Amino acid sequence: MQITAIEPRRKGLSALYIDGELAMKLDTEVLIAQRFDVGREITDEELRECLIASELKRCKDKAMWLISFRDHSRRELVDKLRRDYSEDCCEQTADRMVELGLIDDERFARRYSADLINLKHLSYRGVRQKLAEKGISRELIDEVTGEPEIDEEQQIRTIIDKKYSRVMNDEKGRRRAYNALMRLGFSYRDIKSVMAEYTDTEEY
User: Fold this and answer.
1) Which of 32, 139, 150, 151 has its CA 20 to 30 A from that of 121?
2) What is the pTM of this model?
3) Contact call for residues 18 and 32 (beta carbons, < 8 A)
4) Which pLDDT tens digit goes with each residue over 171-180?
5) Where are the domains of the chain?
């Protein structure tokens, strides 16, 4: 097989022509590094290796782009990369990000749980659920959610004050607040106790 043309395309890609026909689009930097020049004879194995190297580089570039916006857990990063790249490529990329210290599940879990507690005002159960959804291990979830202890009744008060204080004298408003608090993982007992501070009725 002979490379008969290499034409630049958008987003750092180049079209590779073999024996006069378009074969595939590959990362331009990888083509240069692999010395894929017009007129060169290549084998199927060389083409396959270039294809793998191109995908891996594109995958790593995408990972760096995602991480530049915000911190990610390892599984979250893999899940996002999997939309465009192979499983093996995504796993290799995630491993490399961990090696570089750009991905750290413990660091992510502590920051994320702090945001869930202080900004979202989630319950203990809600924080654990959100961490699990991000792929954080049960052992790490146990460690992170054990410090500091969450004052769930105070979390409920904060949510009511911010979102539902004006509707607490309305039955539909109370039910809406109750359902929202249940979805956030708070217990019926805690919700009932706090809501009693805002209304004389117990019909939620």
Assistant:
1) 139
2) 0.74
3) no
4) 888 888 889 8
5) 3-99, 105-145, 152-195
